[in-house]
């Protein structure tokens, strides 16, 4: 797992030296992932988050890939592409751990793997259609925090492509992101294909911000830049979920990482402002704010740590409130706080990927064997217990981060992971909240192998259409096997000797 080793105790190179270090360039590995990403893009037109009325395929000669055996073939091609991307990512990870490649090949690989997905239909999610629907509500003077996109009587393509679950559900996103969505819809109108592509282009600004911050965070937190980039930028969770999705978490992470960097560099006013703006995109960023107070307090002069804490806390609150109010007012034209109630909307999603929900479902099924009962009380109680556990865990992490510096950042990353796991719902891409921050610390190879297993697993537990696959037990069993094999492959190429066994018959025939 990540550690908080003090980088000052070790000699370090400059940022420029680390980026320009000569390395062998893994052309074949990058090409493998690019082929896989291209297959993902092509197959997504039949098996991904396709439109209700598709102007590209429609009822034309290629529409057969959306139905019957054509759909099965599209799924086979899509999962083949996914396998190639993961294979390439794991191979690249081995090269990184061996020191055979530096930062530049990792960045080139991530760019090549993302490029085909720029024009792809949404992968493993349909959330981007909800983004456009909520942006359209704001564009036409409706309150996205009061009702869902179904209330729109314009832009029929936008409305009908929103998932039925979210048609009448208020938006759970921050007002600043709704303003961004409004701008996208104002540009693309009822054209869903352009809307999805433009949304990806806009969210690339978030990726750029994260890329700018990561090398500098690594210098402060003691990690290795190639490992951080491989883990945070080139992983399937980033390439396929955050970009291929796409998801607004990509934008929030930029403000979060740059804000944390600013705090470590003693630019505390800027740090609070940036993380608050990130919160106005996705509220999760607020988890980091209490930890930034510790960093600020430990940078203040004076003998009284208590006094420094209250000084930093008061200043942070004094900055947070006007930025929060101004950001909300600019985005919505009023101080509309309805988005706080909108945060309850994702809790409609109930599946065992969220640990408390899963525990509730297990107890329900055990009791249901004896008595005919409803599942909701069990899930509700388990979720309430999970929230209490989360509050206690988060409070402990915050207290352990009172030394400020790298320790506070580490505890913030752990807390973000805990929120993703314990607060309903747990969606696969939520794990990037903590992983991106923690990627800048020093990692042990065996812990990176665990991250590989988790990354592959959470990417595959949803079907390419965006519907969950968590109760398809045979499919989940295959996902677990694929995840464990991918993790083992990071530590040892061909861990089961499958490739070697394939080559032996050829060698026997040659002999």
Automatic annotation (TrEMBL):
It is a multi-pass membrane protein. InterPro entries: MptA/B-like. The chain crosses the membrane at residues 30-52, 72-93, 105-124, 192-213, 225-244, 272-297, 317-340, 377-396, 408-427, 447-463, 470-488. One of its GO terms (molecular function) is glycosyltransferase activity. It comes from the Bacteria. Keywords: Glycosyltransferase, Membrane, Transferase, Transmembrane, Transmembrane helix. It is found in: Membrane. Belongs to the MptA/B family. NCBIfam families: MptB. This is Polyprenol phosphomannose-dependent alpha 1,6 mannosyltransferase MptB. It comes from Amycolatopsis nalaikhensis. The gene is mptB.
